Amino acid sequence: MTVTVKKRTPLTVPDRVQRRAGFKPGDRVEFKVSGGSVTIRKLSPVDKEYTPAQRRVIDARLDEAEKGPFYGPFHTVDDMIAHLEVEVKRRRRLPGAIDTSKPFPCFALREDAEPITLEQVLDSEE
Fold first, then answer.
1. How many domains does the chain have?
2. At CA 66, angle to CA 60 and CA 69, rounded to 5?
């Protein structure tokens, strides 16, 4: 389809083209210009949620996350649990590791309640 650009009339995308592109009233579109060509792209709902700067940050972080570390795939739940147990032991040896013999600092206990430690929880699961 061809249209003529006029001096004082805004350029309008013909109805037939809008229908074929799937544009509906209320849709947001983006215009990109490159070397005499204009591309009109319908924005997805995700595009509406973030500014271009926010989208760049999110995409960069997702790209970084895809690099890993990944664990697994595990063939059974027991394989995964075994991996987690090894990881807990390894992390306990790291400097600044959580002291599992002390009560959880994030829970408010009733006065008559006996404090429980992470070590007790881990031992009870074995």
1. 2
2. 125
